[in-house]
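Here is an idea for our session: we take a single protein and study its fold together. Once you have written the record down, we can walk along the chain together.
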Amino acid sequence: MDVLDVNTTRTRLLALSQLEEHLSFRVSRLSKLMDNHSAKNIRHPQLNLTDYRILLVLDLFHETSAADLSRIMVIDRAQISRSVAALRTGAFLEERTDPKNKRRKLLRLSAKGTDALSGEQPFFSARQAEFEDLLSPDELAGLTAAIDKLSRHLAQELGEPQAIPASEQQKP
C-alpha cells in the first residue's frame, strides 16, 4: 500500500469514527445490517421481510386490522396495505369483516401463512440464539433496557403510544 492509500484510509477511518459518534447513525446501520441479514435468509420465494414480520405479528396477535399492523410495526400504512394485498393474493392471510365495525377488516393467518411462518422460524430462532450467545447476560440486559428506553422516549415524542415497548408501558 502506498502513502496515498494509507492517508486515504486514515481519512476515511477518521470520518467514519466521527459518524459513529452519532448514536442514530450506529443504530440505523445496525438496523440495516439486521434487515439485510434477515432478507437474505428468508426462504419462501413469495415473502419479503415486511411480509414475514406481518405474519409474525398476526401469529402473536391472532387477528388484527391493517391499520393496527401499521401502528404496532410503526410502518407506513401504504406499505402495510401493499404487503397485506400481496399476502392475501398469495393466500397467506384471511380477511373477515369485524362484527363490531362493518367497515373494519380483520386479518389472520391462513394455513398457508402458518406453514410459511413455520418454515422461517428455524433461521430466526437460531439467529436469536446466536445474538444471545454473542452478548453476555449483562450486555443483553443493558442493550434491551437502552433500546426500550430510547423507544419509549421517541414514541412519546412522536405521539405514538402504541410503539412504547411493553416493558416500558407502566413507567411514568
Remarks:
- The two ends are 56 Å apart (CA to CA).
